[in-house]
């Protein structure tokens, strides 16, 4: 009987600890962090949304996209992002890479097909196609491309949008960021911001799927 009572007391004590931890870590802490984020960093907390004009917004109805997530682009007047293995492409509910190893025949065939496609679209030799033009990021949501891939697309975007190549190159430069803190990562080009700038400069009209 004493053993049963001791066990019951221990169980009740464990249950109280579980309930306290659930309330503290599962309710109070998330609410605190969310509240602080909404006050201190509302734009970032709401998804880093950007309007068609390139302005920050916290209203999803005004957003053209997120600065943190790439988008599928099927418009020769705009810059293409890197491939995506997230769902049908840049699906935030299915974020992942392809899980194909570097020696996978399937991956090698896929890369070769993408190289041929990019080379044909941009009018260059297959050897000039940069790696990020044919490989997906680990998340499948990478919003950036390399300056080399952006430069490769400049002639095609200029010809299709009616903008001078020099003007398009200037837009690319304006949307190119260097290494984080000067040492981390690689220089990168913000595709969404760049495409919105092209749309504005050329006076283009695009559909949601083309941004």
Summarize the structure.
With 211 residues, the protein is mainly alpha-helical.
Write up this protein.
The protein is mostly helical and 211 residues long. It has 2 domains: 2-40; 48-210, no CATH class. The chain has 6 helices and 6 strands, in the order H-H-E-E-E-H-E-H-H-E-E-H. The strands form 2 sheets. Strands 2-1-3 form a 3-stranded antiparallel β-sheet, with no helix packed on it. The longest helix has 39 residues, at 2-40. The mean pLDDT is 86. InterPro entries: KdpC. It is a single-pass membrane protein. Belongs to the KdpC family. It is found in: Cell membrane. The system is composed of three essential subunits: KdpA, KdpB and KdpC.
State Rg: 24 Å
Biggest sheet architecture = 3 strands, antiparallel
Q: How far apart are the termini?
A: 71 Å
Strand order, sheet with most strands: 2-1-3
Total beta strands: 6
> What overall form do the CA principal axes indicate?
extended
Average pLDDT: 86
β-strand amount: 5-15%
Run of helices and strands:
HHEEEHEHHEEH
Q: Give the helix/strand class.
A: mainly alpha
Q: Residue share in helices?
A: 40-55%
Number of helices: 6
Q: In total, how many domains does the architecture comprise?
A: 2
Q: Which parts are unreliable, with pLDDT below 50 for 5 consecutive residues or more? A: none
Protein name: Potassium-transporting ATPase KdpC subunit
Subunit structure: The system is composed of three essential subunits: KdpA, KdpB and KdpC.
Subcellular location: Cell membrane
InterPro entries: KdpC
């Amino acid at each position: 009987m004493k053993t049963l009572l001791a066990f019951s007391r221990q169980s009740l004590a464990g249950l109280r600890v579980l309930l306290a931890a659930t309330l503290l870590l599962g309710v109070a802490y998330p609410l605190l962090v969310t509240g602080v984020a909404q006050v201190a960093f509302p734009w970032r907390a709401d998804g880093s949304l950007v309007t068609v004009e390139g302005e920050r917004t916290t209203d999803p109805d005004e957003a053209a996209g997120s600065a943190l997530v790439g988008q599928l682009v099927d418009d020769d007047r705009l810059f293409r992002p890197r491939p995506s293995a997230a769902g049908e492409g840049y699906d935030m509910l299915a974020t992942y890479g392809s899980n194909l190893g570097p020696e996978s025949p399937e991956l090698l065939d896929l890369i070769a097909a993408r190289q041929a496609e990019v080379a044909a679209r941009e009018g260059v030799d297959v050897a000039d196609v940069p790696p990020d033009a044919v490989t997906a990021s680990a998340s499948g949501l990478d919003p950036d491309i390399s300056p080399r891939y952006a430069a490769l697309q400049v002639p095609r975007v200029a010809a299709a949008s009616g903008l001078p190549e020099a003007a398009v190159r200037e837009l690319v430069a304006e949307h190119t960021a260097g290494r984080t803190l000067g040492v981390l990562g690689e220089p990168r080009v913000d595709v969404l911001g760049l495409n919105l700038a092209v749309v504005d400069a050329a006076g283009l009209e695009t559909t949601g799927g083309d941004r």
